[in-house]
Amino acid sequence: MNLKPIFLLAAVLVAIPPAPVLRAAPPAEPGPVIEPGRNDGGWRWLFSALAAKGAMRSAFTEERWFSMRKTPTVLQGEMRLLPGRGLSLHYTEPEEQLLVVDDAGLLLRDAKGRTRELKTGAAAAGLSAALLPVMRFDLEKLREDFYLHAARDGNDWRLDFVPRDRELARTLGSLVVTGIGTAVRRLEFRRSAKQRIVVIIKTADADVTFSEEDARKFFR
Prior knowledge:
Blueprint: H1 5-13, H2 41-51, E1 56-65, E2 73-82, E3 86-93, E4 97-102, E5 105-110, E6 115-119, H3 123-130, H4 132-136, H5 139-145, E7 146-153, E8 156-163, H6 166-172, E9 174-180, E10 183-190, E11 196-206, H7 212-218
Helix pairs in contact: 1-3
C-alpha cells in the first residue's frame, strides 16, 4: 500500500459535494477572510446548501503534480459520501485501492483485500480528521481550524481554506475549492508552487441510496 499522508489528505478533500459538468469561471485570486457578523451573511446560504446534500456518489480524476516531473500522475476513481458513515474513495486506475475516512480515522484496503488502519490519534489520520469539517461544510467548525477566504463572480465562486495551525499549514498547504451555484467543480490542494493535487469532478449523483452491500463494501 503506497498512499502517502499528503495524498490521503488530498483524498479527503474530494468529499466536498460534487457538481454537474459545467464550465465555471471562478475568481482568479482569493477573496477577503470571512468574518463572523461582518461579511459572512452572503456565504451562509452556500455552506448550508452544500451541507444539506445527502448521500453522494461521483466519478473524479485526480492529478498529482510533482516538482521533478513535467506531467502529472493521473488517477481515476469513484467517491461515495454517506452521512453517518464517512467518505469512501475507490481508486480504480492505475491500480485499485480503497480509502475510507471517518471519525475513527483512516482505513486503507488494496486490491487483494489487505487492510491497514490509522486511528484518529495517528499523525496522518489526525491531519485528515482536521479536514472532516471541510467535507461536511460546517462553517462554524471550519472557522476554528481555517482562515476562510471567499470570492464570487456572478454564480461562480472560490473558497480558500488556509490552516490556522502552523504544523497543519506546513503539511497541507492550502486548499482552493471552486464551483458554480451550489455545486463544486474543482479542488486544488497546494502544498507548494510545484507540488499540488487537482481533483476534477466528472459526473455526480446527489441524494442517492446505497444498498447494505455497498455500505459494507465501501465503508467501515
